[in-house]
Automatic annotation (TrEMBL):
Species per Swiss-Prot/TrEMBL record: Popillia japonica (Japanese beetle)
InterPro entries: CenT-Element_Derived, DDE_SF_endonuclease_dom
Sequence ranges assigned to domain DDE-1 in this UniProt record: 1-75
Domain of life according to the entry: Eukaryota
Keywords: Endonuclease, Hydrolase, Nuclease
Protein name per UniProt: DDE superfamily endonuclease
One MF term in the entry's GO annotations: DNA binding
Any GO CC annotation of this UniProt entry: nucleus
Pfam families: DDE_1
Keyword field contains Ion transport: no
Xref: PANTHER family: HTH CENPB-TYPE DOMAIN-CONTAINING PROTEIN, TRANSPOSON
Keyword field contains Nuclease: yes
Length: 269
């Protein structure tokens, strides 16, 4: 490319990347909307807090009763992002890919090609419509400037202080999730949430990991799946370790009491 002209004539900088980002955002909004439409009664924490033996069988086939936007982002992972990235690229049309060559190779442009401005306006309108359906704070009044600000924010480099703040915020949220998980486990009275059942679940996931690693010839893909599954069972490993530690403490106390009783009995004799 000629010097200092890449951003002006490089095809991918003529609107394809921005177009893709809008499609990606649209599919993310749709995913939020579908989740909120499906779950309307209880939050995830409330569900487990009220879960007991009496209603265990009644609730076993029910999904999560309510998932807030905060819950959505808490559970939003790399696999979800990759799926939306894939959908976003699929929505970038052949017409768009043709139009971006206008400055670099004008002879290849079809006469019936829709302008990038028209295509972008349609995409933004659909994204705004989907976003407003969420009816949540910050979404009900979503407008064009919000979408443009979101797209442009990806081109702004974060300063050191911004990165430090994000790191601290991430650690705080991670700690909140761990604390909430411990609270939910302690408050749950479900007879199904036993140590043997948890170990059985972990063993099943490990079997799945071993199996997919064995049959998938794509090492990068199977490694990605393995890391994801291992991350999913990590909280349950923590529960097992905590219970084992508590059991050891109880055993030590019980043994100490036995020794003390034997010592007292020996003195009396």
């Amino acid at each position: 490319m000629p010097p200092n002209t890449t951003s002006l004539i490089q095809p991918m900088d003529q609107g394809v990347i921005a177009c893709f980002k809008k499609h990606y955002l649209k599919h993310t909004f749709k995913q939020m909307f579908d989740m909120l439409e499906e779950n309307k009664q209880l939050t995830l924490r409330d569900f487990w807090r009220n879960y007991n033996i009496a209603d265990a069988l009644e609730n076993i086939n029910k999904g999560w009763q309510d998932v807030t936007l905060r819950d959505f982002w808490r559970n939003y992972n790399i696999a979800d992002a990759l799926e939306n990235i894939n959908k976003g690229w699929q929505d970038v049309t052949e017409t768009t890919m043709n139009a971006v060559w206008k400055n670099l190779w004008p002879d290849c442009i079809r006469t019936d090609s829709v302008s990038l401005v028209e295509a972008a306006n349609e995409d933004v309108a659909e994204t705004i419509a989907v976003g407003r359906q969420l009816e949540a704070e910050g979404f009900s009044d979503l407008n064009l400037s919000d979408i443009e600000e979101y797209i442009e924010s990806h081109d702004v480099e974060l300063e050191t202080n911004d990165l430090i703040e994000l790191s601290v915020e991430y650690k705080d949220k991670e700690q909140d999730i761990e604390d909430a998980l411990r609270d939910d486990v302690k408050e749950s009275t479900s007879y199904l949430f036993t140590t043997p059942n948890i170990k059985e679940y972990i063993a099943m996931i490990q079997t799945a990991i071993d199996f997919i690693t064995k049959i998938d010839p794509d090492i990068e893909r199977s490694s990605f799946i393995r890391r994801g599954l291992q991350a999913q069972i990590a909280p349950y490993d923590l529960i097992i370790k905590e219970r084992q530690q508590a059991s050891k403490q109880q055993t030590k106390i019980f043994n100490a009491i036995n020794i003390l009783l034997c010592h007292c009995a020996h003195k009396q004799v």
